[in-house]
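Sample log: Transposon TX1 uncharacterized 149 kDa protein.
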Amino acid sequence: MPINHDPLITNATENQLKALNTLADIQMPTLSIGDFQNVSIEPMIKTAVEQALKKLSNICVSCYGSHKMWCIAEFAATTNPHDVWDTDALVRSPILQDRYASTVAAAVSTVGARGGDLSWPQLSAALTTAANAVLRPPASPLTPRKRAAANQYRAALHAAHHARGDRHAAYRLQAAVRARQAAVRQHKADKLRLRLSTIQGARPVRRMHLLYRFFRRSRRTLLARGAGVTIRAWEAEVQRQAEGEQPQRLPEEDAPVDYATRPLLPSCAPAPSGCRHARRLGLTHLEALVRRHWAECSFPVASITSLQHPVPKILRPREVEDFRTLSLCAAVYKIVALHLLDILQTVVPALPYYQAGFQAGQSTYGHIFLVRRLLDAFWQVGTPVHLLPLDIKAAFPSVSKASVVQALQEAAVPPSLINRVVALALRDWTYVRWGAAATSIVLRGWGVRQGCGVSPFLFLLVLHMVVRRVVAPLPRFHLDFAAPGMVPILCAYADDVLVLSDRQEDVCEFLAAFRAGLSAVGLDFKLRKSEYLVRSPVPDPLPLPRPAWLAGMEVPQVSHLVYLGALITATLSRQPGVYHRVRRAQRSLAGLLPALRAQALPVAALDELHRTVLRPAIDYELGTASETQRARASLRRNDGLLLGALRATARPARPGDQPPLRLQSAAASVRAARIRFRGHIARRPPGHPLRRALAFTAPGRLKQGRPCFDFPRSLHESLARLPPPPAGWEALLLDKVALAAYLCDAAPLRASSDEEAPPDSPRHLLYRQGDSGSSSDSD
């Protein structure tokens, strides 16, 4: 019997029947449910009705028409690997098919016996009940330790319930609770030990990264559970986000841009949400559905609803402000958002070089090099330099939606495309999940999603609009670094902004104008996190830190600050920068040592862990800095201590273990990074800010006294330590692949002359790639 003639669905609306028929057309056009007493199980297996209706009943029970069709098309075209129903066993087992068919018939008969006709929610509930009863795989059995702890807790709870006021019973209950918690912890330790024991399988580097992320995620989860934040606090935060006005739709005078999906590989996921690839027929229906909503400029509520997941920003969070909420969006939304981003990037011109966040071909290394190069150049002539980094408070969640529309209009974006940005990216139904509880769903009135593909682009447009208005009346500022003396400069990486100048007046003028410009778009920066630093060859007689007044605002003046992970000091000293990177590596090692002591790994696996996790934490940003003999010695010494602590947890060698890696010394690794960055600068076009900064010389005479061992001198010594290539350094630096191969193969395999270790010492055997020669300048 066809669906629309089934006597059990007499009160189903036309849209509901159309939605169910759409689901049937996606996977099997010949689907016919017929009488549920004699239901055919094979079509249901192929159509995955139970999965789609479960999603439908939980997400959009009150949605009708195209809203329900959207959800059916999305969830029926994909198979979530986290579903609890074992549909594969249903396909393979005829016995399970008979059980499922009889369970569905019994569930439908039970609902029909209550009187009345079968409605859409009752139909989905019957299918869900049958799937939960038959298709749910059996849970893993309890371990003996957890079973004994559960039995002890059950007996103690029963005794405490019947003997209220008995101290002995209460003590037994507390001991049983502690025993059950200890059993759970021991079970997690056993699972971790099993995971560590299989670390030498396929793709060991990938396993190392996954293991390290597992450690950090587990630690964050424990910290979040121990925080004193309740669901009521998150409910108040969500209600605060609901305040504000929604942007209105603009009149369209141009034809809307057509929608065309990206070509998807047969085995790839349509979005990074964990869903497996969809069938070709499902993608065809999904593309037609999205194309229609794109033309109508109206997207279903279920597709633009996002879940905010709190992530702690500090070690011990105690309030809502200590968390950063990441938005988890639907799979189909991510596809359409990336398509929208591609169109915007073709319409909006590229931002100037001052903005490096989310920009192709730029990284943090470029801005760190610019700042350090200017500091060293002005130190050589004895000119003080003023630095002020600014951190915008809650940048993504606080930006005004009206300012986003205004920034798009100033960028000459067509009104039809702006309307689709408003309908898709700026209209956000959201809620927060905290543990097992969730807040109410509200329509956000401020901000953009932090976790969406198009949100960073929209925020950067708003920030660039503010910066362009701020620097327009300031003649000394140039966003493309075209000033004759290169100062003052403005560097930004997303919402982290830094202003550098040789005059304090420039910093004060920009600070006052920038704060007024941010307030116009609903933003502000954190003064308590904004630190003021002066790099001057003349020693400061007053102690630091101390308050400083800039443009009528109190800002702490410090002796050192961290910008994009790099340490900037008020004096010419290389040691604090090395110690800063070593401390970062020590923190990573501190999180790994407890698990490594519990389960010993072979030396080869530990060396791989050192190379892929600890060494990048040490080498970061040191390739953009100059290097002295003392800094190299300190770097080698601390890197050896880290590796020694890591190898102290190794298990004894067994037959078949891999031999230890031939590790490269920390100084040689930093030297290779410095040469690679020099090649990156050489491959930039003429007039690029990095090329201008490398050849920059500050105006004035060289000061008397202590010299500055700058980046060009350190680079010259790094090149002198290696044998010259046959084609010359100038030609080799222009070839990225050949340069990497040369640094890997042609490096001298001998110990450094800076190391005063006997030839038979473990340290000499450890570092087979080292330095040759030394610098005459030292800190």
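Observation: DSSP finds 28 helices and 13 strands in the chain.
Observation: The radius of gyration is 32 Å.
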